[in-house]
Design brief:
There is one protein chain. The protein is mainly alpha-helical. It has one domain. Helix content is 61%, strand content 0%.
Amino acid sequence: MESKYGLVDRGEEFVDFVRETAGDDVGDLVADEVDAARRPNGTLDSDLLPREKRGNGPTHLLRSILYVNQVQFEVWVDPGFGVFERKNARATAIRILEAEGHDAAVDWVLANATKGAPSLGLLRDLWPRRPYSQPSEDFYRSEVVRLSRAWK
């Protein structure tokens, strides 16, 4: 599902990638884990995704993608705030991102930016569709296959 700002749901996107890479059976198992990591409002809680341990499936890769998105979001937030406001603004924006999703976090940043609204085009560039596409696509595909074989 795409947001009003053109940002995609990483959970749904990752499940589609796993289905393409490892087949529908593995994709269904990953979809179950992703659904179990959703809050009642539909946002993903990365703390509920498996951590990298022996026997975990590919879902822990999604955790790393979500972390990268968080860092990218922080980079996007910074220009909208003064030097002394940035730390608190980033923390608030990330709390909203994690609790309410990217639309709510973007809304908050746009409504509260003191130095002018950060560029939505830049945000879409920082939050690309399929972050595991080239040049890292081969790595992610091999990891999905490897982890799927060793899974449970």
